[in-house]
Amino acid sequence: MTHHSRFLERARSAADPSEQKSIYDKWSSAYDADLDELGYVGPLSAAHQLARYLPETRSLILDAGCGTGKVGAELKRMGYSAIHGADISQGMMDLAQQHDCYRKLFLLDLTKRFDHLPEKYDAVISVGILGRLIPTTVLSELIQITKPGGILCLTIRDNYTDGRNYKAAIDLLEEQGIIELLAADVFDYIIGENHAAPICILQKNDV
């Protein structure tokens, strides 16, 4: 098993967010090179999909679970200039800072409530985060910090959700009139593993 495969499998099999945080902190220095070798194009796919629904490049965007800043770097290349990044791993965010694409970086545990966050965002993007360790209640938290009419761009890898039914949770939020599901197209995610993933585009309703 290669170096990157060991870290990747450990991250995927972590028992809880605390263990996963420790793994990402240790992996952070080699993370970008390892994922690039695997053909990790999820951030590129998601950034371009968000841009289809968010043409205003001055929009305030939160990259939730920003890691080393791959999504933020793609958005910066596309002209977006008002990006905040949040992650559970300080080691990852220390590297994200080097991309010089985030106006602000802060620690955020996506398994907790977001009541302490002061900003409301025009868009929230989260790539590679929604999975078996993150409860579907995170959707309500992400919606809460999104402005009415704002966009959420979320990747969901069903093969790593461990029974968590994000589709059902999104359908319920739509039935309740809280959001509208604008798209759920499937894009390349990790080419080296022949994995694709749906990128869900949600719009928060004016309720």
Brief account:
Helices cover 37% and strands 28% of the residues. The protein has helices at 3-12, 17-38, 42-53, 70-77, 90-96, 138-144, 166-175; strands at 60-64, 82-87, 104-107, 121-130, 146-156, 179-190, 195-204. The N and C termini lie far apart (50 Å).
Helices and strands, with pairings:
Blueprint: H1 3-12, H2 17-38, H3 42-53, E1 60-64, H4 70-77, E2 82-87, H5 90-96, E3 104-107, E4 121-130, H6 138-144, E5 146-156, H7 166-175, E6 179-190, E7 195-204
Parallel strand pairs: 1-2, 1-4, 2-3, 4-5
Antiparallel strand pairs: 5-7, 6-7
Shape: globular
Number of strands: 7
* Physical arrangement of strands within the biggest beta sheet: 3-2-1-4-5-7-6
Helix proportion range: 25-40%
Structural class of the secondary elements?
alpha/beta
What's the rounded overall pLDDT mean? 86
Regions with pLDDT < 50 over 5+ consecutive residues? Answer: none
